[in-house]
Amino acid sequence: MKKQFLRFFAGAAVIGLSGLSISCSEDDTTDDIGPDPQPETGRWFTVAGAIMDETPGNGNGGTVIYSVSEEDIQDPEHEINVFENGFQVRSQRTARLQSSVDGSTMFNIAYGGDIGGQFSKYAVNGGDDFEQIDGEVNISQYAGTSPRWVKLFDGDQTGVAVSVTSPLVNEGETYEYTRGTATIVTLDMEEVLISNTNSFEIPLSEEEEAQGYYIFRLDTPVLNAAQDKLIIGTWMGKTDPATGERDTNPYERLGTKALVVDYPSLENPELITSSVGFGDNSGYRSFNSFLAEDGSIYQATQRDPNGSHILRITEDNEYDNSYVFSLDDALGVTNSYIESWRYVGNNIAYVMYTHDGAAPSGFNEGNQQSFLARVDLGSQTAEVVDLPYDPDMYFFQYQGFVVDGDNVYVTIAPVGQDGNVYIINSVTGEVTKGAQLINEPGNHFIGVF
Fold first, then answer.
1. Rounded to 5 degrees, what angle do the CA atoms 294, 160, 191 make?
2. Rounded to an integer, what distance in angstroms lies between the CA atom of residue 219 and that of residue 72?
3. So which domain of life are we looking at (predicted)?
4. Is cis: bond before 264, omega within 30 of 0?
5. In this structure, what are the phi and psi dihedrals at residue 269, rounded to the nearest 5 degrees?
6. In angstroms, how far apart are the furthest CA atoms of the chain?
7. Cβ of 306: how many Cβ atoms within 10 Å?
8. At CA 445, angle to CA 433 and CA 331, rounded to 5?
9. Checking DSSP bridges between strand 45-51 and strand 62-68, what pairing results, if any?
10. Binning pLDDT at 50, 70 and 90, where does residue 11 land?
11. Alpha-carbon distance 111 to 148, whole Å?
12. Global pTM value
C-alpha cells in the first residue's frame, strides 16, 4: 500500500519542569503501623471502580482505586469494597489509569475539569494508601484537558499522549477538505517531565479529502520492535462536501489507517492503510495495539462494517494484508465490536466484546451485554471464556488486565452488582474465581492493575 507523507505545521521539542510539591495520602488506620511498602509475597493488585453521576454505568462521577495482596486477590472469601474504602483518583470523569509492570506504581493523567491534563504518579502501599511521588507535570497546553494516553512497553519509562484539534473545513468557492492538527507528547515517567512534543496536520489523499474524509481522533500509541517508530490508532470522520457539515448519513468506510512517526523525534509522520479492516483502530480507554514476540504489532478495529478484525503490522511498519482475522468468523457472530483487549503472550490474547443479538442492558438504553473470549492470533481462532455473564455486563470502559506469569486477572461484575476477580491461566484456559467485588448501584469496575 502506498504511503501518504504528511507535511508539518509546526514542531517543537520542549522540556517541562516537574512540580515542586509532593502530596502524600494519610494512613486512615488508628494504630501507628501503616501498610507494608510491599506485600510479603507477590505483588500489589489495584482494583479500579468508576462512579456514576446521573446515568448508571457512565463512570462520570470519578474513579476510585484500592490495592490488595496476591494472596487476598486469589481468595474467593476476601471482599474488596473499592467504592466504600478506595482512594479517589484525581480526575473529573473516569480516570485513564496505567500501572507499572510490577504493580508498585500507578500513573494517571487527570481527565477534564480544572486539573485536566495533570500527570501524576503514586506509590502503591496497600489498601487505600497511594502516596503521590516525584511531583507532577501538566500537559494540557499541548494535549488539552482531556488527553488520551498510554504508557509504552519500554520498562515503564515513557508515556505518550495524543490529541487532534477540532477539524476545520477549508471552503473556497467549492469544498476542499477538512483537517485537524495533531499533537503528540512524550512523558518521561521516571523524572515526571515532558520529554518531547510535535504538532502537524493530518491530510489524507486528495481524492479522500475531496469526498470529505478526515481523521478526528488519535489514540493508543505503541512502540515497534526496533523502538524507532510509534504506531498510533486513528478514528475517521466525514464531512458532507455539499453542506460543509458533518455527514450523518451512512457512507462507505475507508480502509483502516494508522499514523506512523519516528521515535523518539516524533517527526516524519505518515499514514499506512489496511485493505483487511475498514473500521477505526483508536480503541477507547485502554491499549488497542500490542507488540508480539514475532516482532509484529497486532491491532483491533472498532466500528468495522464487517465486524471487528485484528490486524497485523509487520516489522517494516506496514499492514500485512495477507493476515485476515475476523472476530465474527472466529466466534460465529455478526457485527462484533472489540471493546477492550489484552495480548498476554505466546500468540494468546483476551478480548472483551459485544455483537448483534447480545442481550440489551437494563441499566442504560442502547448498551448491550459484553463477553470475554480467548483468542489465538496464530490460528485466528477464538472461544468464549466460561464466566457468569449477565445482560448488564459492560466492558466498554474497561481498562485494566494484569498479566502475571501465566495468570491473567480480570474484574467481572455487572453494572451496579457484586462480582469477582477471575484468574485465567493463559496456557490452559482454566478459570478460577478470586476475591469478591462489592459494588454500589450504578457503579462498575474498570479493571485490575
1. 110
2. 34
3. Bacteria
4. yes
5. -70, 145
6. 75
7. 18
8. 65
9. antiparallel
10. very low
11. 9
12. 0.89
Question: For residue 127, which of 87, 83, 76, 74 has the smallest C-alpha distance?
Answer: 87
CA atoms of 5 and 345, how far apart (whole Å): 33
Where do we find the cell 467485588? 437
Task: Give the start-end residues of each E strand in 189-336.
Answer: 193-201, 213-223, 229-240, 245-246, 257-262, 270-273, 289-291, 297-300, 310-313
The H or E element containing residue 184 is: strand 181-188
CB atoms within 10 A of CB 265: 13
Q: Which residues contact 345 (CB under 8 A, 6 or more apart)?
A: 293, 403, 426
Instruction: Enumerate residues 6+ apart whose C-beta is below 8 A from 207.
Output: none
Q: Is 113 left (phi over 0), alpha (psi -120 to 50) or beta?
A: left
Residue 244 carries which side chain, given as an amino acid letter? G
Residue 114 cell numbers, joined: 480544572
Residue pLDDT, tens place only, 323-365: 999 999 999 999 999 999 999 999 999 999 999 999 999 998 8
Please provide the size of the chain in residues.
Answer: 449
Place of cell 483487511: 276
Cell of 295: 516482532
Q: Give phi and psi for 250, each to the nearest 5.
A: -60, 135
User: Cell for 111?
Assistant: 481527565
Segment 242-284, tens digit of pLDDT: 999 999 999 999 999 999 999 999 999 999 999 999 999 999 9
Backbone angles phi, psi at 75, to 5 degrees: -90, 110
H/E element, 168: strand 168-171
Task: Tell me if 63 sits within 8 A of 48, measured CB to CB.
Answer: yes
Asked whether the CA dihedral 424, 417, 83, 120 is positive or negative, the reply is positive
Q: What residues pair up with 172 in beta bridges, in sequence order?
A: none
Helix H or strand E segment including 73: helix 70-73
C-alpha cell at 219: 489514540
